[in-house]
Amino acid sequence: MQVVVEDMPFLVDSVVAALTTAGVTVHEVIHPVLLVRRDVTGVLLEVLDDDPPHRSVLGTDRRVESWIHVEIGRETDPAALRRIQDDLSGVLRDVAECVEDYPKMRRAALDVADAIISSQLPVADQEVVDAEELLRWLADDHFTFLGYREYRLEDSDGGDVLRPVTGTGLGILRADRPASAGFAKLPPAVRAKAREKHLLVLTKANARSRVHRAAHMDYVGIKVFDETGEVVGERRFLGLLASSAYYESVLRVPLLREKARRVMAEAGYAPGSHNAKDLLHVLETYPRDELFQTSVEFLVDVARSVVGLQDRGRLRLFVRPDDYGRFLSCLVYLPRERYNTDVRLTVQRVLIQATGGKSIDYTARVGESLLARLHVVIGMPPGQSLPDLDLPGLQAEIAAAIRDWNEEFDEALVEAVGEEQAASLSRRYRGAFSDGYREDFSPRVAVADVTMLESLGDPADLAVALYHPPTAGPDERRLKIYRTGPTLALTQVLPILTALGLDVDDEWPYDIERAGTSPASLYDFGLRAPAAAMIAGPEAKDRLEQTFLAVWNDAAENDNFNSLVLLGGLTSVSY
After folding, report:
1. Which letter does DSSP use for residue 431 in this model?
2. pLDDT for 22-62, tens place per residue?
3. Cβ distance 231 to 153 under 8 Å?
4. Which pLDDT score is estimated for 367?
5. Contact (Cβ atoms closer than 8 angstroms) between residue 567 and residue 535
6. Are strands 170-171 and 159-164 parallel, antiparallel or unpaired?
């Protein structure tokens, strides 16, 4: 795929993001910027050396172009290729409109800031100051302006509608439309928020940006009031917070520094204390987009809870519903060592199932803190109201879904032997089992295996256990052999099992690297009997285990008479 276009910011990012969003595999991107000469019809005349003398005559027949070459996954369907081309044409148009109107949108933000600070508005003075400072901060290269438009709030057929003011659109909002389609789809109770006497509206837009990065755009609205103090319109900015906005301290960001001050005051921690420092760290690392949109009350609850989690190693879920009923913002804090891609996917699956959501976005933070943070935004289908969630139950469901094998092993140990002995065994066995063992056996089975291994004294000792897996047939069994001494050879075991009249189908060895003591081995044999009755019931199990150990310990001969133990119900000492 090749693009030739006048050079401007965001081109390569936007093209690659559009292809990725469309499910197209991008293998390689090459994007030289060239100085060229073209005639009035656009025909290429010459590629020039990109040096100051040539650049000094830009604007005649010379211009700087971006030539983007992208190698993508092979696609031969003409309809799919046309769809990709149409999508990219739209993206390039959006980029061009945003870049061209960027100075105007930035100027509009500053003009709005001047207007509100010099007007008498029916809102608190602090709200006016916050809005004015925020607009100036955004215009100071902290915000990528993508669209701007002014709206009038009107009563139409008994309901409020936001009508765009003709000729005020900039960037991706250039095109005049009859009314704000997104506003019209909101429930009446939510649309009523447009009349609330609050100056600043901060939320996420329904639409994803096609410029720079494929994320839901930030929505900054400034309400317009008439002489009587009633809301009559809105000035709306759409865009994306710049990278600098994410790394600047909350104590230096307008609106956020006041929120942080109030959160720290209401949390009640002594200034300079350990908890106060942890709380500030929570705010500094909080999803920056969320921090703008979240109330102080919600932040106090989250921050205090997370500070209390630092040394407890527990999972905690917080859910913030969007004021406009379009999405749920979910924060999951969990121990850092527990976080991985599988855990993220599991959390997302549980949240989608519980909420009935349509789309999902996520960000994750795994830093120096003992806690990892996963931020998941669930988008709801159009017209579907936000669900009433059982948060404690959902939190417990997530915790159970992501609980790892070792945690379940520790819990099973406590249930089996009590806390004191379980602590000792956990230190010895918690990292002893291989990935293969953990995949094949549950933690509760592992506790039973630990019990057998702990029963062995002399390194020459063996322990055996016959069991019937749920998926095995009536004539099938498996035999575990436990050993803490030298490893076993198949030639030592197979003759004993064969003499018992059994066929051996397979054998799986597992090394168990115990901490602070000698390693151990477990061998799992698949057995098949000529008749199911030979190995049915607990008595057959006891006879087989006793006979095997008797032969192993030279208390019985290893010959074909041993088959009578299972065929005739004899014991190993009856012949």
Report:
1. T
2. 889 999 999 999 999 999 888 999 998 876 655 555 666 78
3. yes
4. 84
5. no
6. unpaired
